[in-house]
Write a sequence for this structure.
């Protein structure tokens, strides 16, 4: 299955916009009587909210750590928009790509679009623990952004941008000075001060969606795709070794992409594995992707009817 996984990964890395995130993948560490922490680095494409033509997919890549070098290796050939949280590894990737673009590379750079859900979560945690009128007001203002997004979901990118410029931008133009005023009254190291510092420090990435209707307001797409990984950690506990973790990443990528296309993973795996072991040519691997397989099955059902 790995050549098919590699095809999906390379296809995603050629996209103009990706979601990216990482999640722990415990791996047995023989001889030490415990597990070590490996990581699944996830990239995903989902252009359905603005009617994009590229098929949605998610790909997990296993690495033994969470350091910047692993992000750089995975994303070294990517040029476009990365939608993610504020983890420094992605900022390093964007910085390196920007240096190449400045030096005259024809590939362009990497822009970081940050996540309002991560921002909202910080204010929510403060509001849950203590009376916090500022946190509640921040939540109210963020909710207003999401109300607009709910209205324009599924509309073309140009329309989404126009609505955001007309309705969302004034809200954000008013939010930033309000946040700055609130932060001036608080200790920057207090929980609320840190919650306020997050959007102010990431403001450029948090407002990038105003100018591009393809960008989502958050990176929840990739977070949802990683939930089955977390569930499997509870069920299987750990991978037996690094190779097992790599195989786990390959199968998780293919199974989750099947789910995104309403394809039964068991039926798809049974058919695709049978074709692969029967000598299916590598030049026709694209025909086995979940979306191509689904189109073929749908055509067969229509012909049979």
């Amino acid at each position: 299955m790995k050549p098919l996984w590699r095809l999906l990964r390379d296809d995603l890395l050629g996209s103009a916009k990706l979601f990216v995130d990482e999640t722990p993948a415990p791996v047995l560490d023989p001889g030490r009587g415990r597990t070590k922490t490996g990581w699944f680095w996830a990239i995903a494409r989902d252009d359905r909210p603005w009617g994009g033509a590229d098929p949605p997919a998610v790909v997990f890549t296993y690495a033994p750590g969470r350091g910047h070098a692993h992000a750089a290796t995975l994303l070294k050939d990517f040029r476009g928009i990365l939608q993610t949280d504020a983890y420094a590894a992605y900022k390093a990737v964007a910085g390196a790509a920007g240096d190449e673009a400045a030096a005259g590379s024809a590939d362009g750079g990497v822009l970081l679009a940050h996540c309002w859900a991560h921002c909202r979560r910080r204010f929510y945690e403060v509001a849950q623990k203590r009376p916090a009128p500022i946190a509640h007001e921040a939540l109210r203002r963020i909710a207003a952004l999401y109300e607009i997004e709910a209205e324009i979901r599924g509309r073309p990118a140009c329309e989404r941008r126009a609505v955001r410029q007309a309705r969302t931008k004034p809200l954000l133009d008013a939010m930033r000075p309000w946040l700055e005023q609130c932060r001036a009254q608080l200790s920057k190291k207090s929980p609320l001060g840190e919650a306020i510092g997050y959007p102010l420090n990431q403001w450029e990435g948090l407002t990038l969606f105003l100018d591009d209707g393809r960008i989502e307001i958050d990176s929840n797409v990739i977070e949802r795709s990683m939930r089955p990984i977390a569930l499997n950690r509870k069920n299987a506990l750990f991978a037996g070794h690094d190779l097992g973790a790599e195989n786990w990443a390959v199968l998780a990528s293919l199974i989750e992409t099947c789910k995104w296309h309403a394809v039964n993973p068991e039926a798809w795996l049974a058919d695709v594995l049978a074709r692969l072991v029967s000598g299916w040519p590598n030049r026709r691997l694209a025909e086995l992707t979940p979306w191509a397989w689904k189109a073929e099955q749908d055509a067969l059902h229509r012909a049979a009817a």
